[in-house]
Amino acid sequence: MTTLLGPAPLTAPRVSGDLPGPRSTALLAHQERWESNARTYPRHLPIALAEGSGSFVRDVDGNVFIDFLAGAGVLSLGHNHPELVRAVRHQLDSLTHGLDFPTPAKDAFTQAQLSMLAPEPRERTRLHFCGPTGANAVEAAIKLCKIATGRGDIISFQGAFHGSTHATMALSGPVSQKAPVRDGMPGVHFFPYTASDQDVGSVSGADLLEQALRDSDGGIPPPAAVIMEMVQGEGGNFVARTDFVRKVREVTRSLGIPLIVDEVQTGCGRTGTWFAYQQYGIEPDVIVASKALSGIGLPVALILYDTALDTWAPGAHIGTFRGNQLAFAAGVETVRVIRRDGILGNVRRQGDRIADRLAGLTRDPWVRQVRGRGLMWGIELADPRDGRPATEVAAAVQHHALRHGLIVERGGRGDAVVRLLPPLNVTAEVVDMACSILVDAVSAGAGRSPVR
Ligand SMILES: Cc1ncc(COP(=O)(O)O)c(C=O)c1O
Fold first, then answer.
1. What residues form DSSP beta bridges with 370?
2. Which of 144, 256, 317, 432 sits 20 to 30 Å CA-CA off 18?
3. pLDDT per residue over 109-151, tens digit each?
4. How does 176-208 read in b/e, with b if 16+ C-beta sit within 10 Å?
């Protein structure tokens, strides 16, 4: 909607008429005509986007939504944060692309990234700027470890998601995505992921890992690396159990296996600390970071790793788009604003608020669990009769939420986990609006099921 003073500010959701509206319908039809069958988000969220501001986005028909997808966790300070926009505009006037030459913007960005680490690991850390996606940085991490150790096998965890390239798919859990792509990267072994909802003291994936790796006949040669997420985001928002993570670290350290933590989704403050591993009292050998690094959706990805692994040769992981100066400028500003505005504290406070607002949902027989950390939340829907993923109920919840002005994504097994990834500077007011839409959506979505 446009007023005499310009577009109305985006402060509350407002959806009128059917979705998609007429303009969205036209653009979605163009997309269907010209784009690949592999496109994803608009299949579940059938809207065409026009503009965004903070936690809100407006579609081309003038409908306003709370955006709790936030570019799949990329927009840490929401859409078009004015200070980030200003930093990008300023950088535009001097340099936009710099390959891997040093530049003032890159140097400031490097220092901003290092400032997130504790002093001791910081001194031992090296950075490599990768091609601008999370998957490219995961590829770099496994290449680094393979080269440094001279070994070939990699250990990953069930339910993991590390990307959509050929090798990162091999490291990921979803079998249906891997099955049609024959001859994936060999030498990947999966162990169970132990989430915080499993009883402390029960056998963890790390116990099984240790057993296999210490057994001379365990079937797995000493691997080049173990890769893990602290919260499996795409896998359904499972938060790792503390003793599981610590034991993985203990075992890998004692056997001389580099530990890669994939913080593509959990990094840059998403769980309430700069990196999620910092809540587990461990130090990894390699950190993979991407998504929220620029805070405004400009692509950038990197790995931070122990200098002892830095044995690869010049040019071992190259890529044309490793020097996005606009992303660097925005990223420096993101870190500054997060510190200045105490946004890590906001992540923890709003995370607690979401937990509180959604706690009552578990009384619904279709809600198996509400779980999360910081500003990564998931509502898992399961059929109360047999415990299977309630895919259709989750789809109905997502649809109902969209109809009422809230964008949320789904993930996990059977896409039955409704996922929330709000901007890190989301306000209590917006959290309340979103949660009340969600509570209604769950009751409407589950209400359609035969068990009620
Ligand atoms: C943990 C994790 N690793 C890697 C990736 C892949 O990142 P990208 O989509 O930028 O390649 C994702 C994407 O969601 C992710 O969540």
1. 379
2. 432
3. 999 999 999 999 999 999 999 999 999 999 999 999 999 999 9
4. eeeeeeeeebeebbebbbbbbebeeeeebbbbe
To the nearest whole number, what is the mean pLDDT of the chain? 96
Residue-level pLDDT at 330: 98
Q: Provide the Cα torsion 401, 58, 50, 346; round to 10°.
A: -90
Angle between helices 343-358 and 325-340 (to 10 degrees): 70
Q: And the tokens for 117? A: 């680490």
pLDDT recorded at residue 128: 98
- For 126, the 3-state DSSP assignment is strand
Query: Ligand 1 within 6 A of 138 CB?
Result: yes
Structure tokens at 367: 């809600």
Give me ligand 1 centre to Cα 130, in Å.
14
Paired tokens of 217: 């006949």
Index of the ligand 1 atom closest to the CA of residue 136: 11
> Cα of 163 to ligand 1 centre, how many Å?
5
d(CA 82, CA 176): 41
Atom number in ligand 1 closest to CA 233:
16
Ligand 1 atom closest to residue 232's alpha carbon, by position in its atom list: 1
The pLDDT-based confidence of 9 (bands split at 50, 70, 90) is low
> Between the CA of residue 349 and those of 67, 111, 210, 243, 415, what are the distances in Å?
19, 28, 37, 25, 28
Which domains occur in the chain, in start order? 2-81+343-447 (3.90.1150.10), 84-340 (3.40.640.10)
What residue's CA is closest to ligand 1, atom 7?
Answer: 134
List Cβ neighbours of 391 (8 Å cut-off, separation of 6 or more).
414, 415, 416
Q: What is the pLDDT of residues 221-255, one digit of tens each?
A: 999 999 999 999 999 999 999 999 999 999 999 99
58 lines ligand 1 (CB under 6 A): no
Total-model pTM? 0.96
Cβ of 234 closer than 6 Å to ligand 1, yes or no, is: yes
Q: Could you report the per-residue pLDDT of 55-97, keeping only the tens digit for each?
A: 999 999 999 999 999 999 999 999 999 999 999 999 999 999 9
Q: How far is CA 393 from the centre of its chain?
A: 23
Number of Cβ atoms within 10 Å of the Cβ of 165? 17
Answer yes or no: are the C-beta atoms of 139 and 167 closer than 8 Å: yes
3-state secondary structure 355-417: HHHHHHHHHCCCEEEEEEECCEEEEEEECCCCCCECHHHHHHHHHHHHHCCEECEEECHHHCE
Any bridge partners for residue 126, and if so which? 305
pLDDT for 445: 82
